[in-house]
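hey so i finally got around to running the thing on that chain from the lab meeting. sorry it took forever, my laptop kept dying and i had to restart like 3 times. anyway pasting the input first so we r on the same page abt which one it is
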Amino acid sequence: MKTDRNSYLISKALKSFVLASILTAAAGQLASTFDAIVLAQFVGEECVSALSLVMPVTTFISCLGLLMAFGANALAAREIGSHNLEGASKFFSTAIWSILTIGIAFSLLMYAGIPVIMDIITDEEALRDLPAEYLSVYVPGAWLEMLSYALCLFVATDGHPRKVMMAVFAGVLVNAVVDVLAVGFLDWGMKGAAGGSLAQYAVNILLLTLYLRQPACSYSLKWPGRKGFRCFVENLKEGAGVSISNILMAVSVLLISNIVYNALGEPGLFCWSVCLQMLLVSAVFINGVMESLFAIGGVMLGEHDLRGFDLLSRRALITVSLLVLVIVVLMYIPGAVGLLFGVEDPQELAALDHVLRIYSLVMLPFALTLVLVAVYQVLEMIVPSVICAIGQLATSIFGIWLFATYAPSLLWWGFPLTSFLFLLGQLFVSFIYSRRQGCRVSALTLIPYSEGGRTFDSSVRYQSDEVYTILRNIDAFLQESKMSERDQFHLNLCCEELMTNIAQHSQGHVVDHSFDVHIYSDDKGTCVALKDGGKPFNPLFVGKRPTPDLSSKEGGEGLGLCLINNLVENISYKYMYGLNIVLIKI
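ok and heres what got predicted. didnt touch it at all, straight out
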């Protein structure tokens, strides 16, 4: 195995995806936070507490969408990475039809059970009316959120996170307009805020559906037929870890709300509600990084690129740490957060600032644990991902209950203490597991260093002499494989033509960096992935164009690219995450 890989293109793809995902998630969370701000300004502080009580229900509903779509999206990413668009469409179609049937039925069922839901949320009669108003509008259309989220995931994974970002921004704008009109002018209160959220999801669905009709889309919506149930089960299994984590998050919010209310009363519940809003804002960054792991990492695993996934995971951990620190800094600015939620009394502002500064210590360990859970999930390590998801929240609830029972004045310190203790325990167990596996997996992320076959990995500078050096190394690597001499010769010609074309025609800042070559070979065949960060350029399309003037430079170039189309049948091109990606399978 030859490995000479740097993280330039991986960082470029991560930045491209995470930036769009963060802006998308930020816009979505901004809509939720804007609901709280509008309600606080036009109605009163009690609406902010009501939203925190409603959150477990809305989170549970979104988790159903996660369960049906998140795993399907990860599976589709692997199929795209292995150049199996029919398989990608199978998982996509199953997820969409599941939401349109099960999602709608469940939304209507929950609408009929709102009184029962309110009994579960709180037994305080004074706290029931406002949450019930919100749910009476939101719950019947909850399936819109499920469908919107599913489409966002699939379109972003297909290499177009910016299209998702633009659709979500349009939806957020609609939500803001509806909020101001319905709450501020029509005096619809909680019902108006719920209506704004549903309007946002409807706009998202409308705009993202347009992408599905474009030729560049990897998915086609079909009725899954008899194999639909089996595919549905695969989707549920794959998405179980993240879905369970989110369901438990909803349960933990409900339990913590009651613990804080019983220990500190309404002032404590309000402080917890504001802390929760800040945690949701940090979730914007966390979810953006996690989605990049599922999308980019899923494609990499489809390419059998474990080294690339390891580099991606480490970059993701660094990225989420830096991003979360932005929220921590905001929480340390005196009065900055309190004023947003209608707190004007100096004593109340000081008390809230004190709580926020303690709670800010939760952000980093919470984020790192969730990113590691995402890594385990992408690797299909369901048991570790579920254990970590359950363990983090269970530890937090138990620790906070202890503080509330025996030292209520120190209750807020229970949040960071339990989070840090769990992260340290998680890393310790990961280290021990790596040692027991003979150090064949990463002690940090549990990513295996090999999956049985032979791998060639290299980052190549845009220089002809280095390209030919790598081509000689590729030739030596292929000679040791079980490929026939004919296939070796054809694959060498394809790599030579494509790599020299990349080196000769890339322009701008990319020439100061490198492009990546990844080859994986086992008994089932050989896969090659070539990735560069230049402008979008489809060599397969150029190779299919007529080149009548073969004596010209352009004609000769076209002849070479035409050659690779005839030598290899299973070859594809896609522009994803700011990268040109050519996949070859023999």
